[in-house]
Design a protein that fits this description.
Pnp Oxidase, Chain A; alpha+beta; nine-stranded antiparallel sheet; 9 strands; about 150 residues; 3 helices
């Protein structure tokens, strides 16, 4: 394997690329923690609505239990070279209480509507990022924070 030169992106380009990926990708890793049970991580489908990440989980899952106890979460897109990490607090909505626009957009993206699922009830999670980090390789480690306290830095 041959190493390639990585061109360092400026913050505006990192933000643009991050927003593009959030709008296009399907999967995200959600990390939660519980004071008694410790860390928990799951891959989920997600929808980016331009402001927040929406996901669905089983209402009785370990993830749901953790979010009820500790709403601070981390999210990661599944690429170890082109890294995007988000931190924020999860809000949860029973399927019957989720805003219709978010639920309709989620169903439209995935062809599956948790509001009408016959299995156990689902919760929608909404995470508005407070911090976003993005980098490609070691060359971009410096300056990887592109959102702080909910404000884009570029």
């Amino acid at each position: 394997m041959q190493a390639t030169e990585i061109t360092r992106r400026d913050p505006a380009e990192r933000k643009r690329a991050t927003l593009e990926r959030l709008g296009a990708e399907r999967d995200i890793w959600l990390s939660t923690a519980h004071p008694d049970h410790g860390p928990h991580q799951v891959p989920l489908w997600f929808l980016w609505d331009g402001q927040a990440v929406w996901m669905c989980i089983g209402a009785k899952s370990a993830t749901a239990r953790n979010v009820r106890e500790e709403p601070r979460v981390r999210l990661a897109l599944p690429d170890t070279f082109d890294v995007v990490l988000l931190q924020g607090e999860a809000e949860y909505y029973p399927a019957r209480d989720v805003p219709q626009a978010a639920a309709d957009a989620f169903a439209g993206k995935f062809g599956w509507d948790p509001r009408t699922a016959e299995a156990a009830p689902y919760l929608y999670l909404r995470v508005t990022p407070r911090t976003v980090r993005a980098w490609r390789g070691e060359a971009e480690l410096r300056g990887r924070v592109i959102m702080r306290e909910g404000v884009w830095l570029a």
